[in-house]
Specification:
Elements lengths: L10 E2 L15 E2 L5 H27 L4 H10 L1 H27 L2 E4 L3 E6 L5 E6 L3 E8 L1 H6 L1 E8 L6 E8 H16 L14 E5 L2 H9 L2 H20 L3 H24 L3 E5 L2 E6 L4 E6 L4 E8 L8 E8 L9 H4 L1 E7 H11 L11 H10 L8 E2 L16 E4 L3 E6 L4 E7 L5 E5 L2 H6 L1 E7 L8 E6 H20 L10 H4 L1
Parallel strand pairs: 1-2
Antiparallel strand pairs: 3-4, 4-5, 6-7, 6-12, 7-8, 9-10, 10-11, 11-12, 13-14, 13-19, 14-15, 16-17, 17-18, 18-19, 20-21, 21-22
């Protein structure tokens, strides 16, 4: 794969045997030629789903049975053929647009950034500085996995949509490019022609039985069970399936959410590596995530009420860029779908290895107090007793703990939560006070993080405590950012100079 030096804008070939850049060659490259085929099949799937859903609803309402459907097909064959032709034209138009989009998409890797150009009518150029790299994901949807392709996604700190996506590369190309990007982001200089893949150590996996048990004990499963019972009873009382057809969309939505959680958590593996925490999971769509050190903005350990007997916990994080993914927001910020207390604490220690406790103390008691403690356990500052008038159940659990490196916020009795935010990752702080809180001398403290599943807040603290915490946390955050390490976390001081 060579490009003449006198043609800097030439695009290197992107055939099945093309090699992705493994160094900052500065040359333009295209993604795999099968990318339009993988993307355009969704057009056919959406059209077939729309037609099939309409047919099923008609059958359930009794407006159309199988015999009638056959008769309609025979009598109105020409009309159906015309509809099929329209579907093919629409699908063909969509496939053409996807092809043109691929044809005008190219990318290149320099020493400091990855650049992407795309767009047919309006050309856009994106640039991802490697020293601002937050996470690198390799995603393989089912069809792409069958063919042996993968989508490489880069999350970069910045405003708006800072994500850059390369779809699709071969699986080998995606891994090689990921290794180079992570090595460059860390400031590693390697002598080999390409960056070697960092070794990883498997820590634990999530058993399928535990995942199924956690889903069965979730609120969505309970609502789904109630919904099925209500559909059966309603159909029996009314005597026809029209009632079931009306409630079917809500039931399907809950079932779809449960399936998505199962598919996302299937085969969940947690491993450590010099380039960050590595996660692999997914049933139909497999995802390999790498979160570099120091990129985690906030961590949450949570335990729903029904999980308490089994001692299970969930771990979620905020990473810059993940919060803007829409439907992928929850799964992208998931470090552990369900695990034991020891596994949850281990994951916390991987992403935040230093909780800032003194030599006299140990992280264990502090974390225990955050997970299950009440009042002043573990050095937490709790809500005053008068807070019981606005929060009679949870006021004993509300509290915060400040260490030299992080702020820990706990709350929730029925649904326990512990939020941990490094001082250096504090975006801003705020305080709110409702009319009843004002009368009782209470206020709520909120710590603003990047968009994501974690929203750090502690309610119903004393007003003077919130005022002092607000002022001190701003100073702590400013000092932590000023003394933070380099963005390239493995770069030596001599090389950085």
């Amino acid at each position: 794969m060579t490009v003449p030096e006198d043609r800097p804008d030439a695009v290197a070939p992107a055939g099945p045997d093309a090699v992705a850049p493994v160094a900052a060659d500065g040359q333009w490259h295209r993604v795999h030629p099968l990318t339009p085929a993988i993307r355009s099949w969704q057009v056919f799937a959406v059209l077939l789903l729309y037609i099939g859903q309409d047919l099923v609803q008609n059958v359930l309402r009794g407006d159309l049975d199988v015999g009638a459907a056959t008769e309609v097909t025979r009598v109105r064959g020409w009309a159906l053929a015309g509809g099929g032709l329209i579907i093919l034209l629409v699908a063909g138009g969509g496939a053409t647009v996807v092809y043109l989009s691929w044809r005008f998409t190219r990318y290149r890797v320099t020493h400091d950034a990855l650049e992407l150009e795309h767009g047919v009518v309006s050309r856009r150029q994106r640039q991802a500085p490697l020293d601002r790299l937050q996470a690198v994901d390799i995603v393989q949807p089912l069809l792409a996995r069958i063919i042996g392709l993968a989508r490489l996604t880069l999350e970069v700190a910045g405003g708006g949509d800072s994500r850059i996506e390369l779809a699709y590369l071969t699986e080998t190309q995606a891994r090689r490019l990921r290794n180079h990007l992570l090595a460059s982001a860390a400031g590693v200089r390697y002598q080999t022609p390409e960056a070697p893949e960092a070794p990883e150590h498997l820590v634990f996996t999530v058993p399928v039985q535990r995942l199924l048990g956690a889903l069965a004990l979730s609120g969505a499963s309970l609502w789904l069970g109630f919904g099925v019972v209500a559909l059966v009873i309603g159909s029996v009382v009314t005597g026809h399936l029209g009632f079931a057809a009306g409630a079917l969309p809500a039931t399907l939505a809950v079932g779809s959410a449960l399936w998505r959680q199962f598919s996302t958590g299937f085969g969940f593996r947690v491993a450590t590596s010099p380039d960050g925490l590595r996660l692999r999971h997914g049933l139909l769509e497999q995802r390999t995530q790498t979160v570099p050190p120091g990129r985690v903005q906030a961590v949450r350990l949570s335990q729903p009420l029904l999980w308490r007997a089994a001692g299970w916990w969930r771990v979620q994080v905020n990473v810059a860029g993940y919060g803007r993914r829409g439907s992928e927001r929850v799964e992208a910020g998931l470090l552990l779908p369900v695990g034991t207390r020891d596994e949850a604490v281990a994951v916390l220690s991987f992403v935040l290895p230093d909780l800032g406790v003194t030599d006299v103390e140990h992280p264990g008691p502090v974390v225990d107090a955050g997970l299950t403690g009440r009042l002043a356990d573990g050095g937490f500052v709790p809500s005053p007793r008068r807070a019981r008038w606005v929060d009679p159940i949870g006021w004993r659990r509300n509290g915060y703990r400040v260490t030299s490196t992080a702020l820990l916020l706990r709350r929730g009795v029925l649904h326990r939560r512990l939020d941990v935010v490094p001082h250096a990752r504090t975006q801003s702080c705020g305080a709110t006070q409702g009319p009843l809180q004002r009368r009782l001398g209470l206020a709520s403290f909120a710590l603003h993080s990047t968009p994501g599943p974690v929203t750090p807040v502690v309610d119903h603290l004393a007003t003077d405590v919130v005022a002092r915490l607000l002022a001190e946390q701003v100073l702590r955050a400013r000092h932590a950012r000023a003394t933070a390490g380099p963005e390239r976390w493995m770069e030596s001081p001599a090389s950085s100079d």
